[in-house]
């Protein structure tokens, strides 16, 4: 069995006592965005040292840039309308030993996740997080407005280190 509700409530009491939630502002267009995997080993709060309020985080299997993620980002952008439109930064973080590799055994369902035909799955490089994060950073750069910077990271679950696999590039180009 996992962590009990009683334990979660106890941990929350510690959180409340720490006061980290107080006075945080609503996320703006300039708040860092992180897209990463659901894997319990790769929480960006720990891996990237993000404090509460530092980043808007989207997580799915693999941290992949699917049409669903692009729709969410477009909807989120509506919340930032009217605010400053500069220096926004979006980070995609994939990781080694990702479970998405095992899902290659289910090509039809994986293709559904990516919203592509199953015979095009090879283009998503699910076995190689370094290649995959470059592919996804490219999709984001093409999809996001020109003032948004996009970076692709790979987190190594053995060493705890991140590698900048796709250095920061401003969007609006297909570099
Ligand atoms: Zn994963």
Highlighted features:
175 residues, alpha/beta, five-stranded mixed β-sheet, binds zinc ion
> What is the string of helix and strand elements?
HEHEHEHHEE
Output the strand order for the largest sheet.
2-1-3-4-5
Instruction: Summarize the main sheet.
Output: 5 strands, mixed
Work out the radius of gyration: 17 Å
Shape from CA axes? globular
Please state the structural category.
Answer: alpha/beta
Strand content: 15-25%
The beta-strand count equals: 5
- The end-to-end distance, rounded to whole angstroms, is 47 Å
Mean pLDDT: 92
Uncertain regions spanning at least 5 consecutive residues: none
Number of H/I helices? 5
Ligand types: zinc ion
- What share of the residues lie within helices? 25-40%
Question: Which helices and strands appear, and what pairs or packs with what?
Answer:
Layout: H1 5-18, E1 32-37, H2 44-47, E2 55-60, H3 67-79, E3 89-95, H4 107-114, H5 129-143, E4 149-155, E5 162-170
Parallel strand pairs: 1-2, 1-3, 3-4
Antiparallel strand pairs: 4-5
The protein binds zinc ion.
């Amino acid at each position: 069995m996992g962590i009990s509700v009683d334990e979660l409530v106890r941990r929350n009491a510690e959180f409340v006592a720490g006061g980290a939630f107080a006075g945080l502002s609503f996320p703006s267009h300039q708040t860092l965005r992180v897209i990463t995997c659901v894997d319990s080993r790769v929480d960006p709060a720990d891996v990237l040292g993000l404090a509460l309020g530092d980043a808007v985080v989207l997580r799915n299997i693999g941290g992949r840039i699917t049409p669903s993620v692009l729709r969410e980002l477009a909807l989120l952008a509506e919340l930032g309308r009217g605010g400053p439109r500069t220096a926004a930064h979006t980070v995609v973080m994939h990781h080694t030993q990702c479970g998405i590799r095992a899902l290659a055994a289910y090509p039809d369902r994986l293709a559904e996740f990516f919203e592509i035909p199953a015979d095009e799955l090879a283009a998503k490089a699910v076995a190689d997080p370094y290649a995959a994060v470059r592919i996804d950073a490219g999709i984001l750069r093409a999809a996001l407005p020109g003032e948004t910077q996009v970076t692709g990271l790979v987190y190594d679950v053995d060493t705890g280190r991140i590698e900048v696999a796709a250095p920061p590039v401003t969007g609006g180009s297909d570099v």
